Amino acid sequence: MHYPAPAWLPGGHAQTIWSALYARRHWRPLLPKQRERWTTPDGDFIDVDRQQASREDRPLIVLFHGLEGCSSSHYAQAFADWAAVHDLNFALPHFRGCSGELNQAPRAYHSGDHEEIDWILQRFRLQHQQQGGRTMIAAGVSLGGNALMRWAAEQGLHAAQKADAVASICSPLDLMQSGLAIGRGLNRQIYTRMFLRSMKPKALLKWAQHPGLFDRKKLMQARDLYEFDNVFTAPLHGFKDTDDYWTRASAKPLMRHIRLPALALNARNDPFVPASSLPQPHEVSSSVTLWQPEGGGHVGFAQGPWPGHVCGLPDAVGGWLMHAAGQALSERMPHG
């Protein structure tokens, strides 16, 4: 991906913040979305927002959001617009607790939640096939992208049964390096504060729902994501502590096992995904394509004259996914 950053938007922080808050997200009014509630295998629920194409058998793109994201996030609106322009079915499954209503189970979601990804993609694939659809692609943004790549690596050859191509966008594929980076300096003042502002109240609601689930006092004292994950995310999801969670949930060490077409897009000036932590060609399988432009920020990539737009991101990633899926499908078709 070639990304020429606008002269009026220099640096990773500006490209991150401006894109999320002010850049244009869609070219025409967004189509209405239908919300579905799915019961999870453990009796909980997730909410899925869907946008229909002209026909049910048109290709489907599934987008997994980032930390504390939802279907109204700037990148989600941009992908929904791209799907509408290309007449694709679009679906955004919310991770547990991210749809505006607290989930019921004594758990939330986490960066390595590949079992949840597997269940979601299996269900989408089955539905889409029953409607006559053939092509299904998936993209994950930030946290959602690490979980998606972790899923692709865990599934190996079986992944192609559930998706035709996948992409991660600005994902912290090495969670330890990114987790430490977001807790330092300006990152700590901007992004850590922003995330904790929504994560702490939701965790307290979870404690009220399941009293004694974690140490409430320690959670209140958490000042960065490392401390928050140590009290809440890690123990609730079967990890010993933050170090164990960030090590075991990272996709990067497993990307040699990916066997379906996969794209990993990371800007080298992402404020909290250090360029030194990004996977190199020798660390991934031949199925993985790495795009690492110099600029773009974290899920930014605004372009054009002021105030800019973020529609180039889904255009580039979505275009790659559709091309890769088409090639994969043609290779699987019987010849002769």
Structural notes for this entry:
By secondary structure, the protein is α/β, with parallel strands linked by helices. The chain folds into two domains: 12-174 and 250-330, 3-Layer(aba) Sandwich (Rossmann fold); 176-247, no CATH class. The protein contains ten helices and eight strands. An eight-stranded mixed β-sheet has the order 1-2-4-3-5-6-7-8, sandwiched between helices. The longest helix has 25 residues, at 185-209. It is globular, with a radius of gyration of 19 Å. The two termini are 36 Å apart. The relative contact order is 0.18.
Give the secondary structure arrangement, pairings included.
Elements (H helix, E strand, L loop, with lengths): L11 H10 L12 E6 L5 E7 L8 E5 L9 H12 L3 E5 L20 H17 L5 E6 L1 H13 L9 E5 L5 H8 L2 H25 L6 H6 L3 H12 L5 H7 L13 E4 L22 E4 L20 H21 L4
Parallel strand pairs: 3-4, 3-5, 5-6, 6-7, 7-8
Antiparallel strand pairs: 1-2, 2-4
Helix pairs in contact: 2-10, 3-4, 8-9
Quick recap of the structure?
By secondary structure, the chain is an alpha/beta fold. Helices cover 39% and strands 12% of the residues.
Highlighted features:
336 residues, alpha/beta, Rossmann fold, eight-stranded mixed beta sheet, 10 helices
